[in-house]
Structure formats: C-alpha cells, structure tokens
Design brief:
227 residues; alpha/beta; Rossmann fold; 3-stranded antiparallel beta sheet; 9 helices; 9 strands
Length: 227
C-alpha cells in the first residue's frame, strides 16, 4: 500500500480531494491531505513545506502538488524521503524569482484570474463565480462548481512575493501532469517548464485545471500507474 500525500493549491483546502480519495482507496492505497496555512499572512512556503513534511509518515509516499503547491514539492523532498513527486497542473519555481516576478515574466497563469479576486487581510479571496467556473472548474457540472466555489478561502500574498530558493530540486523521480484544456495554467508553459526545469516530458491528461473533480477515476489511474 502506497500513501499519496495530496497537497492543495491556492484558495483550496483538503476538501478538493474528496472524489479522488475513494478512487485511490479502491486501488488499495491511502491518501493524506494536509491543510496548508494558506490564509496566514506570516506563513512562508517553508512553513507550508513543514506542514506537508509532517504528513509524510513512511518512505513509500507519492507526493502530489496541485497548482501553487508545485512550489512546495522540492522543499518537502528536502525534508523527507519520498518515492515519487507529481506536479499536477502545477507551478514550478524558478530559483531567485518570486511567484509574482515569474508571473510577470512568463504569464503562465491566465491574467483574467486577477479580476476574480478581492483583497482580504494580507491576501486575496475568490469572489467571481463565473470566472471560477471558467478558469478553475471548466469541465465540472454546475452542482460541483457551486459546492467548490462555496468552500474557496483566502490565499496570503506573503509567500508569493518571496524569492524561490536558489537550489536544484532533490533527485526524486518526478512526473508532470499537464491538463490539456487547462484555462488557468497555460498548458504550453507547463510542457516547456517540465522539460527545462524538471527534465521530464509532461504526461497529458484530458480536461481542465481541476481533474480531481472532473475526472477522478482517470487521475487515480494515472497516479497509481506511476507506482
């Protein structure tokens, strides 16, 4: 039995994995879903990584990071031994650049997302449901969109403005899953950065930015196939 540590991205929480967990369970594996301190205006990505590392309780672990959680994968692998790491429609840190600087340079995220946010206590929260449907949940049905949108929470700005560590990622077997119809994170950027920064060819997964909701069975099959 392998443990999948599933790490949520910005504005999300462990709830977003609720459809994937039963699929992994049916395959004989277990899932752990840490809650990141995303809304804490003082927390850094190193603090986020400490939370995730504390959830890694054995060496037979596959670490899965969605979206912004891609920034955490090398930090966690420096703290704990993992069997495999998976970037799921995820950002890949550029050493020496903050997320904000990388976004200005590369434009990897659809700039329309900024119009969906409002400032709150040192961060942002998502307030535009139509843009959430368009960018985050484009291939999900309306009840799923409504339920997910109602649970989105704040994301602090502090870690997004801190330079990424100027160090090579640990030598951990790595897979990048690019969602081919992703409207939030540019799939062509994902393919390029997977080769340039991670040294791997991206694995293609049909659908939008949130496959854990729109196609959990297919996502589970890919993840289990890695082991």
């Amino acid at each position: 039995m392998t443990t999948f540590v599933l790490v949520h991205g910005s504005w999300h929480g462990p709830w977003c994995w609720e459809r994937l967990i039963p699929e992994l369970d049916r395959c004989g594996h277990r899932a752990v879903t840490p809650q990141l301190p995303s809304a804490d205006p003082a927390a850094s990505f190193a603090d986020y990584a400490d939370v995730v590392a504390a959830a890694v309780d054995d060496d037979d672990t596959v670490l899965v990071g969605h979206s912004l959680a891609g920034y955490l994968l090398p930090l966690v692998a420096q703290r704990r031994a993992v069997r495999h790491q998976v970037y799921l429609a995820a950002l890949v840190a550029e050493p020496g650049l903050s997320f904000a600087e990388q976004q200005r340079r590369d434009g990897m995220l659809n700039p329309a997302y900024r119009g969906a946010l409002r400032p709150v206590a040192g961060g942002t929260e998502w307030v535009d449901r139509d843009l959430a449907r368009e960018l985050l949940f484009s291939d999900c049905d309306e009840p799923t969109v409504a339920a997910a949108f109602g649970r989105l929470s704040g994301q602090a700005n502090h870690p997004l403005r801190q330079p990424a560590a100027d160090a090579e990622p640990p030598a951990v077997p790595t897979t990048y899953l690019v969602c081919t119809e992703d409207r939030m994170l540019d799939p062509s950027w994902s393919r390029r950065v997977a080769e340039r920064r991670l040294g791997v060819r991206a694995v293609e997964l049909a659908g939008g930015h949130s496959p854990f909701y729109s196609r959990p069975e297919a996502l589970a099959a890919v993840l289990v196939g890695l082991i």
